[in-house]
């Protein structure tokens, strides 16, 4: 596949040109932005088992990382403060390193079955306070640290994206077997996957065992 090149005259490079392409923002879209977690936002967060956190590194490189646990795993410390436990992962620490370089973060809370989402923006810090980590424990295992976020903006996002994608429609669900396993993909992209199907199955089984033993 050859690389696509867009002609300069077709690029939107300034705010005025951007705004000219769209109708004016709806009044409610302006007014809905809050600087505090009201009762509705808190109720949404308590129902959410999944959140994506967007960060940006010192060099401007962007990153979005998924975080998930049982519903309500993101602690509401007060109407201006959230805490997200950092569970065991791949130890790349992209999100955490970015927060040290640039504390601005964006969160997207998702509730299964809900077409609308909750967006939260704020300033993040990394904390190892023992009392807080104990509060965020799961299966008697405390996280190594918590991402503590001072909330600066909160608003509900409309349902259009989820309805266009029919994300929760079972008729749209795809069989994971339609693509190679995660282990095969990773090996294909790095050191090379074994040709022996039995050997690859053993690697897949080992990954599943690792999931079970290292979730928390």
Description:
By secondary structure, the protein is α+β, with helices and mostly antiparallel strands. The protein folds into two domains: 145 residues, Pnp Oxidase, Chain A (Roll), CATH 2.30.110; 41 residues, no CATH class. Helices cover 31% and strands 25% of the residues. It is built from eight helices and seven strands. The protein has a seven-stranded antiparallel sheet. A hairpin with a 5-residue loop joins strand 1 and strand 2. The chain is globular and about 60 Å long. The protein starts with 14 loop residues before the first helix and ends with a helix. The model has no long low-confidence stretch (mean pLDDT 96). This is Pyridoxamine 5'-phosphate oxidase family protein. Pfam families: PNPOx_N (PF01243). It comes from Plastorhodobacter daqingensis. InterPro entries: Pyridox_Oxase_FMN-dep (IPR024029), Pyridox_Oxase_N (IPR011576), Split_barrel_FMN-bd (IPR012349).
